[in-house]
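Preliminary data (for renewal application), zinc ion complex.
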Amino acid sequence: MKTPQDAFTTYLSEKNLKMTPQRRLILDTFIDEKQHLSPEELYDKVKKVDPSIGQATVYRTLKLLVEAGIVESLDFADGVSRYEVSWGEEHHDHLICERCGKNIEILDDVIEKRQEAIAKEHGFTLSHHKMYLYGLCSKCGRKRS
Amino acid sequence: MKTPQDAFTTYLSEKNLKMTPQRRLILDTFIDEKQHLSPEELYDKVKKVDPSIGQATVYRTLKLLVEAGIVESLDFADGVSRYEVSWGEEHHDHLICERCGKNIEILDDVIEKRQEAIAKEHGFTLSHHKMYLYGLCSKCGRKRS
DNA sequence: AGGTGGATGAATATGCTTCTCAATACGGGA
DNA sequence: TCCCGTATTGAGAAGCATATTCATCCACCT
Ligand SMILES: [Mn+2]
Ligand SMILES: [Mn+2]
Ligand SMILES: [Zn+2]
Ligand SMILES: [Zn+2]
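Predicted structure:
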């Protein structure tokens, strides 16, 4: 499978857009950080390599990466949007501790199949879904204040 | 079971807060509209009855209603927060058409049980979850542009 | 009546995200 | 190589939903 970088280059040229040093740096930095990053956090990382970069460019590039199907946007309901590199990765959902923020990636075939079935029952063609499970992890559950 | 209004009154007095005409009007209006309302939409409805009401009061009251467990906040990824009255209603999730906005409430026992099981496997105590299925409804799917 | 604490509306502030704009970089053709 | 059109960029301003501030108001108790 193509690397995310190659996929991005391909996507850009298809749209008559250009691969630039800034875009390359932003994607490379994102891939290095295997995390659920907010635009601001990614901007901070990128600035360490190229302090002249503007945060508008980070927002714009994230938008492009989502359109290109290389990155997915997440929603942990913590006030900022978050992203993760999804290219070449298996789909998964998230189990989140509301106290400490611990975040576990989960995947359940039974659920995924039922989601498809439910959509079909209603005549829908499913394009994607979001599922977030919120609760307390074992550590935080014990010392519940 | 208590009505949402009674539940709200109870909650307020427990917290040494007061039931006011504004709060009563906001909840009554919300209950009349069996919809997924945004704060702005609710504000517009309420203003028709009492034009002197402030939108800060709508935001504040919605927050209280969520805390009281009478209302739930939703996230349809359309740029605004949305709410629905959940008191006395069965939990459900949503199936959303990305083209026309059609919104179907769904509930699947298999999924709900698996969610609990997954959380347990990871030592989590689940407090709640969000699940949104996005796609195209039968109408919009046919005339795909 | 006077006092106390919550509630309110208008205005202002906040925080994340997007847009505007002038300057710059790039790439293909003369 | 120079020219030209287009895409890109960074800085700052603007948008937009939501939260907060603050002076006033009101309900209730003594
Ligand atoms: Mn899933
Ligand atoms: Mn559910
Ligand atoms: Zn935890
Ligand atoms: Zn539709």
